[in-house]
Amino acid sequence: MNFHIMTLFPEMVLDGLRTSIIGRAEEKGLISLEAVNIRDYTTDKHKKVDDYTYGGGAGMLMQAQPVYDCWKTICENINKKKDSETKPRVVYVTPQGEVFHQKKAVELSKEKDLIFLCGHYEGIDERVLEEIVTDYISIGDYVLTGGELAAMVMIDAIARLVPGVLNNDESAQTESHANGLLEYPQYSRPEIWHDKKVPEVLLSGHHAKIEAWRMEQSLERTRLRRPELYEAYLLANPSKPEKNKKRKEGL
Ligand code: ADE
Predict the structure, then answer these.
(1) CB of residue 95 inside a 6 A radius of ligand 1
(2) Cα 235 to Cα 77: distance, rounded to the nearest angstrom
(3) Which of 134, 187, 218, 231 has the most C-beta neighbours closer than 10 Å?
(4) For residue 20, which of 165, 237, 139, 118 has the smallest C-alpha distance?
(5) pTM (predicted TM-score)
(6) Ligand 1 centroid to 116 CA: how many Å?
(7) What residues pair up with 92 in beta bridges, in sequence order?
(8) 54 lines ligand 1 (CB under 6 A)
(9) Are residues 218 and 176 in contact, defined by beta-carbon separation less than 8 angstroms?
């Protein structure tokens, strides 16, 4: 899978992503990361990429021209490697987008090429957004100084789902949010630490019992910490918590 990031700060994005697991995935050729500097595409002789907002208001706006030309070059380069012409999805990372979640990460991980557009200043001229953006996505209801950190968060979440990126494929299936629930608590050695003992069932070697205990813990943790996720899970899986309830009630 190929990630193309349109940004004014390419080093920030690449330095952040080219470490640890995502960096190794790139070295192995499982993904590629390309950060393209929008400033390189401005036709302004002073290399300016922003200007005042029509109608007044605080701050500067990124102009349409450099953003459009940068996008066009990225698309041309992608299509050079292909027989047929395709228009890859363009994600504009913005607090005005739909909030990113694991299902969206799974959906986007199936794309071959994905372009991220990182804004700065007060945003980007609406006209270019209308022409090139396919997805408006936020990482949460708060405002960052620019889109780079948000793009890095999304790229990390998406890239780790690409087959082979995680050593243990199973961990992506059992982790929090994979099935709409938070993950159960986990324990490692020693068996007793600060007078706290690892739950007996985990030492039993009884796989069915361990699985049932983990499911119960996942449900309870989700109910307490993320009630809205719990409610959604109950709606989608009406039979599961009933079983759980009966077990708790000794039925
Ligand atoms: N840019 C600034 N704030 C953002 C946010 N919360 N999500 C995505 N992009 C952003």
Answers:
(1) yes
(2) 45
(3) 218
(4) 165
(5) 0.92
(6) 12
(7) 117, 136
(8) no
(9) no
